[in-house]
């Protein structure tokens, strides 16, 4: 009697499937943790804002900060005495911090051009001013701290442990993009998350990601003060302006990512 052929899945394939499911589960957990930690004070903020706007915005800011102790509690449950893996704050050189900020500033015109092009071609819904919903503290401080500790701190380390570097980078960036809740912003926030995650993996520290996020949101604050967002009045933006923004942004990014520039920064010398 002949034996039936062995139909078992090869070990390496099973391992990849297990890693994928483990990484996706950890990524979904980040979404759950974010809303669980921010919900109580976030709900209070939405109620109080109706009668006391400033107090409501402050409660919203504190709600975002509640992500930090929440994440550290989850990290302690997962790693015990090694909970500091969720908060890698090793010092980095000033060069990588300056380079990070310059990259973010060079990327912003590309994001603006994307919004202008979309509004010019298909039209966009009126996007709310972020200051009206989270305030200055929430935009410039609360959101960067909460999102970096969650996505590039605990999230990146946990998914990396379960599923490897590449999946950790992709899944944490996708969660970061989805948490912003806008299909218009999805491509730019995903690319932004990939860049910040790459920085943390390369430098072994959360500081570049924090500074990069502060820089980005600070620029958003400045632009909001200068006038309405591009989606509000961009239907007649000339294509020459859009293409100029794209060209300028790509030229600056190419310069910053050139071997001549990155080669001067010890943390970035290895090829990416």
Structure characterization notes:
With 272 residues, this protein is an all-alpha fold. It has one domain (11-268). Helices cover 75% and strands 0% of the residues. Helix 1 (11-48) runs antiparallel to helix 5, helix 4 packs antiparallel against helix 10 (239-256) and helix 5 crosses helix 7. The radius of gyration is 21 Å and the shape is globular. The N and C termini lie far apart (55 Å).
How would you sum up this structure in a few lines?
By secondary structure, this protein is mainly α. It has helices at 11-48, 53-65, 67-79, 94-121, 130-163, 165-179, 186-203, 207-226, 230-233, 239-256, 259-262.
Topology:
Layout: H1 11-48, H2 53-65, H3 67-79, H4 94-121, H5 130-163, H6 165-179, H7 186-203, H8 207-226, H9 230-233, H10 239-256, H11 259-262
Helix pairs in contact: 1-2, 1-5, 1-6, 2-5, 3-5, 4-8, 4-10, 5-6, 5-7, 5-8, 6-7, 7-8
Properties at a glance:
272 residues
What pattern of helices and strands is seen along the backbone? HHHHHHHHHHH
The whole-number mean of residue pLDDT values reads 87
- Compute the number of helices: 11
The Cα radius of gyration reads: 21 Å
Shape: globular
β-strand number: 0
Largest sheet: none
> Distance N terminus to C terminus?
55 Å
Helix content range: over 70%
| Class derived from helix and strand content | mainly alpha
| Unreliable segments of 5+ consecutive residues | none
Beta-strand residue fraction: under 5%
Number of discrete domains: 1
């Amino acid at each position: 009697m002949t034996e039936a052929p062995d139909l078992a899945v090869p070990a390496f394939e099973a391992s990849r499937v297990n890693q994928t499911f483990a990484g996706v589960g950890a990524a979904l957990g980040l979404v759950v943790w974010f809303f669980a930690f921010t919900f109580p004070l976030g709900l209070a903020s939405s109620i109080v804002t109706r009668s006391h706007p400033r107090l409501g915005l402050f409660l919203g800011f504190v709600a975002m900060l509640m992500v930090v102790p929440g994440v550290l509690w989850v990290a302690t449950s997962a790693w015990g005495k090694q909970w500091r893996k969720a908060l890698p704050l090793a010092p980095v050189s000033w060069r990588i911090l300056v380079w990070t900020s310059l990259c973010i500033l060079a990327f912003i015109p590309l994001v603006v051009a994307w919004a202008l092009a979309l509004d010019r071609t298909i039209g966009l819904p009126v996007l709310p001013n972020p200051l009206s919903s989270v305030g200055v503290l929430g935009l410039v401080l609360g959101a960067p701290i909460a999102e970096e500790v969650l996505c590039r701190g605990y999230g990146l380390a946990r998914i990396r442990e379960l599923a490897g570097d590449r999946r950790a980078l992709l899944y944490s960036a996708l969660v970061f993009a989805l948490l912003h809740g806008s299909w218009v912003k999805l491509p730019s926030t995903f690319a932004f998350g990939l860049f910040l995650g790459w920085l943390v993996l390369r430098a072994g520290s959360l500081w570049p990601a924090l500074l990069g996020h502060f820089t980005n949101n600070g620029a958003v604050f400045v632009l909001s003060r200068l006038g309405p967002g591009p989606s509000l009045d961009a239907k007649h933006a000339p294509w020459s302006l859009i293409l100029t923004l794209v060209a300028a942004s790509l030229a600056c990014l190419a310069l910053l990512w050139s071997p001549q520039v990155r080669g001067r920064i010890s943390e970035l010398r290895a090829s990416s």
